[in-house]
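Quiz preparation item.
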């Protein structure tokens, strides 16, 4: 890959495939800050001809007051002058392109809850994908590890 050029990959579309929100009606708001755990997985699939990539990202927020889970899919295709293969793009760039969409959905859904909206902190995609087997379509990545959020209870 020529690092002075763009990857030559087209971002065709992003789709929200699933969204679940559950408020714990037994939870009572108090003074201590709320803590959250983020879980998820990333599953890329290359087409048979290797010219398109369907990448799915599932994110789940777990806390005492609420649970939010979502799955989004991004469709990418090889451009006219690719500088990067879709297999290489699937490793870091595809999940990095999908995370802001997940962040926006989580913010919008939690903004309608009794607690302040969640804004996910930046996520180190390389750290999340380090153990991937470099075989898109055959591996799922677990994003567990309690990524902090900046929401605090008022």
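Solution:
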């Amino acid at each position: 890959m020529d690092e002075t050029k763009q990857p030559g990959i087209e971002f065709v579309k992003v789709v929200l495939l699933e969204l679940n929100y559950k408020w714990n009606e037994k939870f009572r708001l108090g003074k201590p800050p709320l803590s959250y755990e983020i879980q998820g997985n990333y599953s890329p699939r290359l087409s048979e001809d290797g010219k398109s990539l369907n990448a799915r990202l599932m994110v789940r927020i777990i806390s005492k007051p609420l649970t939010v889970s979502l799955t989004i899919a991004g469709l990418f295709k090889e451009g006219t002058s690719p500088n990067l293969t879709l297999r290489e793009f699937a490793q870091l760039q595809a999940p990095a392109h999908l995370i802001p969409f997940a962040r926006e959905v989580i913010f919008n859904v939690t903004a309608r809850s009794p607690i302040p909206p969640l804004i996910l902190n930046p996520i180190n995609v390389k750290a999340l994908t380090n153990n991937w087997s470099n075989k898109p379509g055959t591996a799922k990545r677990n994003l567990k590890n309690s990524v902090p959020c900046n929401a605090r209870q008022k």
